[in-house]
Design brief:
The protein has 211 residues and is an alpha/beta fold. It contains five helices and seven strands, in the order H-H-H-H-E-E-E-E-E-E-H-E.
Length: 211
């Protein structure tokens, strides 16, 4: 039940369904100008007559990082860039300082920029199915962060600075990451109150050496 509780909390930003929505009324969780719409291209978002709060990209021209014009959408609260084969995230991500939800699932990321630490309103961070080996030290600045989904990355150690999040970070999802007991205990020492989900090394087909 604890795991379900944490998952529900983390996904509240994007998964909650209000009575107003059920009745066909606009979703105004971000204010009176929020029409509840999720845009699916940068161009249509840039041409929108009202502030854009949600953008979901699943197709981008072949490129290493995000298009610079995306950072004009400074009112964004929710950004998903999924399966776009990105190798990096621009330093300019800091311009999206209103972001509460950032989903970078299924790209080719090996690291995140230190400027992600400027996203002080961020509550949910998903980097699942990438190749991220470590988190930036600046993650310590994300004091609203409640959930990190790092599923299926070679992430075996955490930066010391992440201990600053021990009172806010409810869940760290490291499933499909085969941690040794020593690695898990090192993480737990930094985040004693955080639910850490991981794959036991003995259950992994590609076993790593035990510490």
């Amino acid at each position: 039940m604890n795991i379900l509780k944490f998952v529900c909390l983390a996904f509240l930003i994007v998964c909650q369904t209000s009575l107003a929505n059920a009745q066909g009324e606009p979703d105004t969780r971000y204010g009176k100008d929020d029409d509840g719409r999720t845009y699916t291209t940068i161009q249509e978002a840039l041409n929108a007559p009202t502030p854009v709060y949600r953008l979901k990209l699943t197709k981008l021209p072949l490129r290493d990082s995000l298009p610079e014009e995306l950072f004009q959408l400074t009112e964004l609260r929710e950004l998903t860039v999924k399966g776009c084969k990105l190798n990096s995230i621009n330093q300019n991500i800091e311009k999206l300082e209103c972001l509460q939800y950032l989903n970078l699932d299924k790209n080719k990321l090996v690291r995140l920029p230190e400027t992600i630490g400027k996203l002080k309103n961020l509550r949910f961070l998903c980097i699942s199915r990438n190749m991220v080996e470590t988190l930036p030290d600046a993650i310590s600045n994300l004091t609203q962060l409640a959930y990190i989904d790092a599923w299926d990355n070679p992430l075996y150690i955490l930066p010391e600075t992440i201990k600053s999040l021990q009172s806010s970070l409810n869940t760290l999802d490291l499933r499909q990451i085969p941690l040794t007991k020593t690695e898990y205990l090192a993480m737990k020492e930094l985040l004693p109150y955080t639910e850490i989900l991981f794959t036991d090394i003995c259950e992994c087909e590609n076993r790593r050496d035990h510490n």
